[in-house]
Amino acid sequence: MTILSVLDLAPITEGSDAAASFRNSLELARHAEALGYHRYWLAEHHGMPGIASAATAVLIGHIAGGTSTMRVGAGGIMLPNHSPLVIAEQFGTLESLYPGRIDLGLGRAPGSDQVTARALRRNLDTDPDAFPRDVVELMEYFSENSRLPVTAVPGKGLSPQFWILGSSLFGAQLAAYLGLPYSFASHFAPQMMMQAIEVYRANFQPSAHLDKPYVMLSYNVFAADTDAEAHLLASSWQQSFVSLRNGRPIRLPPPVHGYTDTLAPHERALLDSVLSCAAIGAPQTVTHVMREFIARTGADELIITCNTFDHQARLRSYELLAGVREALNT
User: Fold this and answer.
1) How far is 215 from 13, CA to CA, in rounded Å?
2) Which of 200, 208, 290, 321 has a CA positioned 20 to 30 A from the CA of residue 142?
3) Rounded Cα–Cα distance for residues 317 and 307 (Å)
4) Roughly what angle, to the nearest 10 degrees, separates helices 130-141 and 169-178?
5) How far is CA 119 from the centre of its chain?
6) DSSP-assigned letter for residue 278
């Protein structure tokens, strides 16, 4: 059975603002919950004009408070930006408010450029062991029998679901060693996906958190009533992605016809890489592409992102995808 979830990048569109993005996120979360999606994640980014989820824990509380059954969490918290104690207190608070529904995905990238990372008042520790140490410390704060000299209140004795995120082999190895579920960022960096899945599964050590490997892959889906309409909707995300890779992050722009025909060869190559983890089209097309992807990866769960300029089109895409899920599972 294929489990589908939602990764919301809280897009800010051209001519709009963060307040509208937050309203759209809550509407999407309620829509996704009604459609049976399993979890709803938000990601930490800083200094990005087109992404509104910088205060990730605050936004998770907003979404969890506006829904009732779906898991809600971070995909992820960029731990190098924070002290483990602060994150333990934040997610201890969330787990206290919404027990049994909170996920805490952890990544080691800053989610920003180096200048922004310094502005976050964190030391840019280049020690490769710093992130694993911080993860272990953070998890220890939640232990009922914590040996740390400081107590996380709230936090101690609570159990958000821990995840390790990654786009390389490092996260796969750490998730396997700690016996945690693993989420690979294939929606924007698919190059090492298959190798990372292999490493994780081959080296997984059962733990109190998880008895066997569990892989969730992030995946782009743009579903519409026709293939042509879906490709037009996807052009907003494509413009945003290419601009980001060219060092010019922007707000999510309106769709344009024939966008890919305007790209330079190196830009087209960038886009082709990420399109290997995307399904764009009418439901029948999306079903075929996703079925092949699931067969190739053996993913336990897909977490779907869909950045469209038109919010109603995004709601419609997730609605159509819910129908695709039924086709995939039969």
Assistant:
1) 31
2) 200
3) 10
4) 40
5) 24
6) E
**For 51, which DSSP code?**
B
Tokens (6 digits) for 225: 């009533």
Beta-carbon contacts of 300 under 8 Å, excluding residues fewer than 6 positions away, are: 3, 214, 215, 216
Angle of helix 84-97 relative to helix 130-141, nearest 10 degrees, comes to 40
Q: What is the DSSP letter of 45?
A: -
Contact present, 157 and 191 (Cβ < 8 Å): no
pLDDT below 70 — which residues of the chain? 110-112, 121-126
**What single-letter amino acid sits at 262?**
T
Supply the pTM of this predicted model.
Answer: 0.95
Mind listing the pLDDT tens digit for each residue in 303-323? 999 999 999 999 999 999 999
pLDDT tens-digit map of 116-129: 777 876 666 667 78
CATH number for the 3-219+295-310 domain, one of 3.20.20.30, 3.40.190.10, 3.40.50.300, 3.40.470.10?
Answer: 3.20.20.30
| Pairing assessment for the beta strands 278-281 and 301-305 based on DSSP bridges | unpaired
Residue with tokens 């971070």: 74
Encoded tokens for 119: 């502005």
CA atoms within a 13 Å half-sphere pointing along the CA-CB vector of 27: 13
Phi, psi angles (nearest 5°) of residue 21: -60, -45
Amino acid at 167: S
